[in-house]
């Protein structure tokens, strides 16, 4: 627990990415395998259920601190965080503990089913063995409100640095409904899986600004243009009867967008599409704010799925029937993409982002200045 509390302290001290990654990587290098698994679980929002309600926590903390309940409540009001308030008002520890993060979390799982007196005794016993930051983390875990400024992508980057396993493989291995109580670190993180390569995306080819004299020096007849869609850049992968959706930030978001599973029945195996994930309410491209309702949600309700369906506007065909097409000319890939999509029935969450050609850059500018009618932003 001391090592984990120290990690949280280090993460809490900075808003910069590299120091956070370094602190996490150092922790993953030194911690026990069981503590690593629980840390991954906590940082990917797999927290155990809250074993004690906050009303009882406040009451018992005030008793242990030997202060009136009103004074504790005033302190809580000023501090603004229950775990921090408890850590501040309790007396200094009279003992110490060697229990690990895993020990505490497994005890908390058992604690949920105990009687109130047993819960109070457990808290009092452990409060006396923890210093300020350990106590703060302990109370955060007890309240079920453990959140720290670390995204799952940042955690994955640190884990990759500590283990040498590629980030995209880790992102795949860590998704799903694995249980930190039963899974082994080697099984979860280190051991190769037959399916690892199935989900692997291609590097994203991102847009960049043209050179200063581009429009004076280049002939528009040699160029192709597309609308700029206001969504999330994504790759949709279909391999060996499974599908995977990756965002531009190389985060695996398959479970957030279940609409695309239906495409397994219609697209050939070994297909990889590059495109833009867009909200599509009432059969029209919607505002990006609609898509934000689905970003970061742990559970997708029927209401959310109905109010904010999504589609993929496909820019490019990167792989066809298992063949990597990236070395082939763009026009050939776009032709293959058109042929592929033309075979699909209507009503599927997949459309093509149409390319345009122009006789002059003035014509291109006119098209660019009326993107609103398409639901684009440029």
How does this structure look, described?
By secondary structure, the protein is of the alpha+beta class. The chain folds into 2 domains: 2-143, DNA ligase i, domain 1 (Orthogonal Bundle), CATH 1.10.3260.10; 223-374, DNA ligase/mRNA capping enzyme (D-amino Acid Aminotransferase, Chain A, domain 1), CATH 3.30.470. Helices cover 43% and strands 10% of the residues. α2 crosses α10 (152-163). It starts with a helix and ends in a 10-residue tail after the last helix. 30% of the residues are buried.
Which structural category fits the helices and strands? alpha+beta
What is the level 1 CATH name of the largest domain? Alpha Beta
* Helix percent band: 40-55%
Number of domains: 2
**Portion in beta strands:** 5-15%
Q: Describe the main β-sheet briefly.
A: 6 strands, mixed
Q: What's the end-to-end separation, in Å?
A: 52 Å
Give the CATH H-level superfamily of the largest domain.
DNA ligase/mRNA capping enzyme
- Total DSSP helices: 17
Just name the CATH architecture of the largest domain.
2-Layer Sandwich
Q: Enter the CATH topology name of the largest domain.
A: D-amino Acid Aminotransferase, Chain A, domain 1
What is the structure about, briefly put?
The chain has 378 residues and is α+β, with helices and mostly antiparallel strands.
Keywords:
378 residues; alpha+beta; DNA ligase i, domain 1; D-amino Acid Aminotransferase, Chain A, domain 1; 2 domains; 6-stranded mixed beta sheet; 17 helices; 6 strands; elongated
Topology:
Blueprint: H1 2-12, H2 17-30, H3 33-43, H4 54-65, H5 69-79, H6 82-89, H7 101-111, H8 116-127, H9 132-143, H10 152-163, H11 167-173, H12 185-190, H13 214-217, E1 232-239, E2 242-247, E3 271-279, H14 288-292, H15 302-307, E4 310-320, E5 323-324, H16 330-342, E6 350-352, H17 361-368
Parallel strand pairs: 4-6
Antiparallel strand pairs: 1-2, 1-3, 3-4, 4-5
Helix pairs in contact: 1-2, 1-9, 2-10, 4-5, 5-6, 6-9
């Amino acid at each position: 627990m001391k090592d984990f509390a120290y990690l949280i302290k280090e993460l809490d001290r900075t808003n910069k990415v590299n120091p956070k990654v370094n602190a996490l990587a150092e922790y993953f290098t030194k911690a026990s395998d069981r503590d690593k698994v629980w840390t991954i679980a906590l940082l990917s929002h797999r927290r155990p259920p809250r074993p004690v309600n906050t009303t009882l926590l406040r009451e018992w903390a005030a008793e242990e601190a030997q202060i009136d309940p009103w004074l504790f409540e005033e302190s809580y009001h000023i501090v603004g965080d229950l775990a921090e308030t408890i850590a501040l008002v309790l007396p200094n520890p009279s003992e110490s503990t060697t229990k690990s993060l895993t020990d505490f979390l497994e005890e908390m799982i058992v604690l949920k089913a105990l009687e109130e007196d047993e819960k109070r005794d457990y808290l009092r016993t452990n409060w006396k063995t923890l210093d300020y930051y350990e106590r703060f983390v302990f109370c955060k875990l007890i309240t079920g409100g453990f959140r720290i400024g670390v995204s799952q992508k940042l955690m994955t980057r640190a884990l990759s640095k500590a283990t040498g396993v590629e980030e995209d493989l880790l992102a795949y291995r860590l998704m799903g409904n694995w249980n930190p109580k039963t899974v082994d670190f080697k099984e979860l993180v280190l051991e190769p899986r037959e399916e690892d390569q199935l989900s692997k995306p291609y590097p994203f080819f991102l847009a960049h600004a043209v050179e200063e004299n581009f429009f004076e020096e280049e002939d528009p007849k040699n160029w192709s243009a597309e609308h700029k869609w206001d969504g999330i850049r994504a790759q949709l992968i279909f391999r060996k009867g499974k599908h995977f959706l990756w965002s531009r930030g190389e985060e695996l978001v398959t479970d957030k967008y279940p609409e695309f599973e239906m495409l397994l029945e219609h697209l050939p195996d070994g297909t990889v599409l590059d495109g833009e994930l867009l909200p599509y309410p009432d059969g029209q491209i919607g505002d990006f704010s609609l898509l934000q309702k689905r970003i970061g949600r742990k559970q997708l309700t029927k209401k959310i799925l109905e109010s904010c369906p999504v589609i993929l506007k496909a820019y490019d065909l990167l792989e066809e029937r298992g063949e990597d097409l990236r070395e082939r000319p763009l026009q050939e890939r776009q032709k293959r993409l058109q042929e592929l999509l033309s075979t699909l029935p209507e009503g599927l969450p997949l459309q093509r982002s149409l390319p345009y050609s122009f006789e002059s850059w003035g014509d291109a500018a006119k098209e660019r200045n009326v993107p609103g009618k398409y639901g684009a932003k440029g």
